[in-house]
């Protein structure tokens, strides 16, 4: 989310860009997003950096030029910096974020959308690593860059009374296996935030992947974790699926199992997947604990996923990994 002090400046920048492209900013709508501010109107989409000095949008714009066309990245019209804030204007794609459409889709279309989401991600993975390396982010903020950094995140959760001694010990051992496997793993360009939030659905199919500001070179398991999580993360405790929804969820899991199987052939693959999962959930849990209402943390998805991983090999992903 754009910091309150920068909100007015970001809106002023977007207004200028809309005016220059002959679009009526008064009719534009603000889209969701927590790192940049985005407005959609007419044939235009404008993203404005949330803070001065951020180079993420410039980096993403340059990265877009080396992405395969199968990614569906929108056509870049113009980029620049105004009032200290970077911005990019792209051709608006007539579609909505997949996460907004998800609840209204039947299970057949959800499964189809999941397959299409992964197909777009696989196109990202085919980008030339040498061309992408100078343009990708030096690090993704959701993941650590060293064993010590990832361990410290878990130790902070332990010190806060969120993880028990045993849970901390078992999660640290899983991270040790991850870091041992990482140096030999082949690195590809990863989207870095492969969520339905960042995919566009036109009513029939996933037509685009957006928001590559967190794209990094890493093992494919970084993006794979997001795909697997879509199907295997624990449902909300108050909304556990039953009947047709339970059957639909099982079908989605089977589809994801089929997509993930080629990348989970060895124990090393599993260690890479689980290490990325632990780091992402630890980051998310720390972020949520900083907000009001932390006393309910045991009901939150990141906590439940971490604890599941600490108490069972594979955690919530065990049905996938045991199959």
From TrEMBL:
Keywords: Transferase. InterPro entries: AGP_Transferase (IPR051678), Aminoglycoside_PTrfase (IPR002575), Kinase-like_dom_sf (IPR011009). Residues 31-242 form the Aminoglycoside phosphotransferase domain. One of its GO terms (molecular function) is transferase activity. Pfam families: APH (PF01636). This is Aminoglycoside phosphotransferase family protein. It comes from Streptomyces subrutilus. The lineage of its organism: Bacteria, Bacillati, Actinomycetota, Actinomycetes, Kitasatosporales.
